[in-house]
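Hi R.,

As promised on Friday, here is the backbone we talked about, encoded as structure tokens. Could you run it through your design pipeline when you get a chance and send me back a sequence?
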């Protein structure tokens, strides 16, 4: 198979499946792993796909956002490890903002026995926090149908009432040029405000979020500590460590 044919096959398979593994491509094309890696690098450099741990995924539209149901089917072991570590940073008596999202949601079961107060803009966070008997406030505003996050003027005004010891924020993408980004400008404003109202801010991000950007900026990388997993390759992490603190968590 010629290089062009092989790369077109990779792109067509991505269109069908959205995410493909390197071994899957090796088996399908009878090419070596090094050849497939080179193909993926070339296609990523031409912005036709995005490399992820062990494979590749389609390049998303800048304003496209997966629903919460779609997010909950991906990278669960990684999110669990990130969530457990993030929860360990919360101490007795802390007031904490926990952003809407599936990685932030993974924190909640590990907070059950801590004497803390949570403020959230996520209906998914509220539900599981109450199940774990955690004192929780929810901000007002418009409920986004896809992500179940509270956004808009009501959410912004509600957040102005609080100061936080720590804030844990989700992001759709991050890179060293554009910082933390998300598709929805209104949601970006809520995340940014929560960061500014916290003594210490953390952004939780699985490996698929790195070296990518979406429509609306949340904040510069310098505004928060990044918590991610060992699924992110070391060479990808290095430029981020030059700009902010990065905590890399092992995945069980």
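Update: got your reply. Pasting your designed sequence below so it's all in one thread:
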């Amino acid at each position: 198979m010629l290089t062009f044919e092989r790369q077109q096959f990779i792109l067509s398979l991505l269109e069908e499946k959205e995410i493909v593994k390197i071994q899957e491509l090796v088996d399908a094309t009878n090419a070596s792993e090094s050849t497939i890696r080179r193909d993926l690098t070339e296609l990523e450099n031409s912005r036709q796909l995005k490399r992820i741990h062990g494979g590749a995924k389609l390049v998303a539209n800048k304003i496209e956002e997966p629903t919460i149901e779609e997010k909950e089917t991906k990278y669960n072991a990684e999110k669990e490890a990130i969530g457990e570590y993030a929860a360990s940073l919360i101490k007795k008596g802390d007031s904490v903002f926990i952003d809407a999202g599936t990685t932030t949601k993974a924190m909640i079961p590990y907070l059950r026995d801590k004497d803390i107060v949570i403020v959230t803009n996520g209906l998914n966070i509220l539900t599981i926090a109450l199940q774990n008997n955690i004192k929780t406030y929810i901000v007002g505003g418009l409920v986004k149908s896809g992500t179940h996050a509270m956004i808009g003027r009501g959410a912004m005004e509600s957040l102005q009432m609080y100061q936080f010891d720590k804030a844990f924020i989700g992001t759709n993408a991050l890179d060293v040029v554009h910082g933390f980004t998300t598709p929805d400008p209104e949601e970006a404003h809520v995340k940014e405000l929560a960061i500014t109202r916290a003594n210490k801010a953390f952004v939780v991000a699985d490996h698929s979020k790195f070296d990518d950007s979406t429509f609306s900026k949340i904040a510069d990388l310098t505004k928060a500590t990044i918590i991610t997993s060992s699924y992110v390759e070391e060479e990808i992490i290095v430029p981020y460590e030059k700009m902010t603190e990065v905590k890399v968590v092992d995945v069980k």
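One thing I noticed while checking it: The two ends are 38 Å apart (CA to CA).

Thanks again,
M.
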